[in-house]
Specification:
This protein has 9 helices and 7 strands; from the N terminus they run βαααββααααβαβαββ. It is an alpha+beta fold. Strands 1-2-3-4-5-7-6 form a 7-stranded mixed beta sheet, sandwiched between helices. It is globular, with a radius of gyration of 17 Å. The structure holds coenzyme A.
Length: about 220
């Protein structure tokens, strides 16, 4: 029987290994183990993030979920608090992996720098885009699931479902209207999400040029 609880600092060595193994095609995983440990720590420390661990009967971490209750403020806090360390590990990996370095320059570097400058400017002038969005009338309150990973040898026994159900409880507890996620169009997990009641919202091309399919999970019945 799997148990789901908040992801803790002492889980990160294991959960980032699972991240590397399970989501190996993802850009973030290509940024290496040290980057991922730092990345997951940012989630664990975020008041607006969702970071969950699935624990098996032997006490082992067999899966994890990362997401956010308030995505904008979560990502802003992550960049402000952990940005320098994340940038360090990303550059350290790029120096030793020329293919990653080329990909970084071609698809992300300029956007990351512009985003950082915009964020610093908004912080300096006291503008809080999240507060504006959440206080706006009639705006749906939307959280997101960004990473879901279950160890290969633990799949098919309810771990993924248990992680998503706990994320759903957290999102409902925060009075959100829906959860959203994106997944590559060719991934088998699409069938999993649809089986659990997520609705496909069409195709999407990220600003880095990757193809995704969007899904949403309504939280109010
Ligand atoms: C997708 C993933 C998270 C599913 O986790 P899991 O623990 O194996 O799934 P569960 O055992 O909780 O399955 C729950 C239900 O979904 C069904 N299901 C699982 N995978 C499915 C699939 N690919 N298509 C259709 N149904 C699926 C199961 O049969 C089960 O149904 P039931 O309980 O009604 O009998 C896991 O396979 C995984 O980590 N895959 C690799 C990483 C990945 O793709 N992550 C998502 C990236 S966005």
């Amino acid at each position: 029987m799997v148990k789901v609880r908040p992801l803790r600092g002492d889980d990160i060595a294991t959960s980032s290994r699972i991240h590397l193994e399970v989501l190996d095609a993802e850009f973030l995983a290509r940024c290496g183990g040290a980057f991922l440990r730092c990345y997951q720590r940012a989630w664990v420390e975020s008041p607006d993030g969702i970071a969950l661990a699935a624990i098996d009967e032997g006490g082992r971490v067999v899966g994890a979920l990362l997401g956010a209750i308030r995505p904008e403020s979560h990502f802003r806090a992550m960049v402000l608090r952990h940005g320098p360390a994340l940038a360090f590990w990303l550059l350290a990996q790029a120096v030793t992996h020329p293919r990653l370095a080329r990909e970084l320059v071609a698809t992300r570097a300029l956007r990351y720098v512009r985003g950082l400058l915009r964020m610093l400017d908004a912080t300096a002038t006291g503008l809080d885009a999240t507060a504006i969005a959440l206080d706006g009338t009639g705006q749906p309150r939307v959280g997101e699931v960004t990473h879901l990973m279950v160890r290969a040898d633990a799949r098919g026994s309810g771990v993924g479902r248990a992680l998503l159900q706990e994320a759903r409880r957290a999102a409902q507890g925060a009075d959100l209207d829906e959860l959203v996620l994106v997944t590559p169009p060719d991934l088998a997990s699409r069938g999993f999400y649809e089986h659990l009641g997520w609705q496909c919202g069409g195709a999407l091309t990220s600003r880095s040029g990757e193809q995704f399919v969007r899904y949403r999970w309504a939280l109010r019945t």
